[in-house]
Specification:
The chain is of the alpha/beta class and 427 residues long. It has 14 helices and 12 strands. It has 3 domains: 55 residues, no CATH class; 212 residues, Spore Coat Polysaccharide Biosynthesis Protein SpsA, Chain A (Alpha-Beta Complex), CATH 3.90.550; 80 residues, no CATH class. It is globular.
Length: 427
């Protein structure tokens, strides 16, 4: 189904970028540049001085006239060309560090990896429709210079031909009995029936943005500490302007790389609620998990926010999760205001339960959001491709903003008071 092309050793590794530090005083990001170029210069100097190539100990300037010294410079440049070529191929081998507190950090190795890992692409499905055709076609075009790739689908009673399309594409289809779907347990069921060293999880209406999407996700697991990774999301071309804007400005649409790990000896609960949430940000619209970690820490039964629940457990256990913007999926949904309210309520109920986070702590603050909708109205009018869509977006903006602010308040309040979450079966 998916081409398994062996690419050349000189592939450029996408390890260059910047990390996105959470807006808190304890979290900082450092960049450490690889020593390849410096080592090459040291090698050259030691050869010139007649000393050992490993360092400067005992090295003294050697004799020679200025003419000889000038003529030798061309030879020195030739000697450095292999190191320069290696440096360019590896994109300078930048190192990324996320530290919590001074002097405590988690350093990721920077060698450009090659993987022989076997991969399982896992898709929960139910009446996926025409977008499944687009997903399957894009998966078939993936260039993966690694081990084997399989497709596993957990289908919840589709009646629109979804199961037949999956089997035709070579997928293993797992039956999920009616009424038993659960965001955590259903994904556990699919992974349990897979064989890959890495399970790549994607929803049925997300479309990989390039033929190197799979390779980019799996490359993250060449770092042994990494338990899971997620990639960037881009709104569909026909998405409302405000939907696309919110996604671009969210952690899931960021173009900056993130690496999250607790330092030794510092528990997750020692952080402030916002810090805990930012450190554990994870997204099952498109993610990947290491099987050996999942076997010890499965998702478990979870009706909503199973991705955040899992990442919280993994981070607390001392593992690393990453976010790579170098690959992306195209995914957005144009929901009704009622559906946005329901999803926001459940999301903030989960955020309060998992991290103690309350983004809208009072009813008064929720209602005040209505008066801050001006910039959203102006952006809808300016960015929509037609006047009619602009007017619709401008009319929707203040209503949706108020509805989601109330949902944030009510969801977190109910969780804090120990109330059961409201049941929204269609979410």
């Amino acid at each position: 189904m998916i081409r398994n092309d062996r690419l050349g050793e000189g592939r450029m590794a996408p390890w260059i970028g910047t990390a996105d530090p959470p807006e808190t005083p304890d979290l900082r990001v450092e960049h450490r540049i690889d020593r390849h170029w410096r080592d090459a210069l040291r090698e050259r100097d030691c050869k010139e001085q007649g000393g050992p190539s490993g360092g400067h100990d005992g090295a003294q300037p050697g004799p020679g006239s200025e003419v000889t010294r000038e003529a030798s410079e061309h030879g020195h440049l030739l000697e450095l060309l292999p190191a320069l070529a290696s440096l360019l191929r590896a994109d300078a081998h930048a190192r990324f560090v996320l530290a919590i507190g001074p002097g405590r950090d988690a350093i990721l190795p920077a060698e450009p990896p090659r993987s022989d890992m076997n991969v399982s692409v896992v898709v929960p499905t139910r009446n996926a429709g025409v977008l499944l055709d687009e997903l399957l076609a894009t998966l078939a075009k993936q260039r993966f210079p690694g081990g084997s790739v399989e497709l596993v689908a957990a289908d919840s009673g589709s009646t629109d031909g979804t199961r037949e399309k999956l089997r035709k594409a070579g997928a293993r289809v797992i039956d999920v009995p009616d009424g038993t779907f659960d965001h955590g347990s259903t994904r556990d069921l699919a992974i349990a029936n897979s064989r890959g060293d890495v399970a790549v999880l994607i929803v049925q209406d997300a479309i990989p943005g390039s033929t190197t999407w799979l390779e980019g996700l799996v490359r993250e697991f060449e770092i042994e500490e990494v338990a899971g990774t997620t990639c960037r999301r881009v709104a569909r071309a026909d998405a409302p302007a405000l939907t696309a804007m919110r996604l671009r400005e969210s952690p899931h649409g960021s173009r900056e790389r993130r690496v999250s790990k607790l330092p030794p000896g510092r528990p997750l609960e020692a952080l402030a609620p916002k810090q805990r949430f930012e450190l554990c940000t994870f997204d099952h619209v498109c993610s990947a998990v290491r099987r050996s970690v999942w076997e010890r820490i499965p998702f478990g039964p979870c009706p909503f926010a199973e991705d955040l629940s899992w990442s919280r457990k993994v981070i607390a256990a001392g593992h690393t999760i990453t976010y790579t913007p170098d690959v992306f999926v195209v995914h957005s949904r144009d929901r009704s205001i009622l559906r946005e309210y329901r999803r926001t309520y459940l999301a903030h109920y989960a955020l309060s339960k998992l991290f103690g986070l309350r983004t809208v702590p009072t009813r008064r603050l929720a209602w005040s959001s209505l008066w801050s909708s001006g910039p959203l109205i102006r952006r809808a009018l300016a960015e929509e491709p037609s006047l009619l869509r602009g007017i619709r977006g401008a009319l929707r903006a203040p209503v949706e903003r108020l509805a989601t602010a109330i949902a944030q308040y009510q969801g977190a309040r109910d969780a804090a008071q120990g109330k059961a979450a409201r049941g929204f079966r269609e979410i």
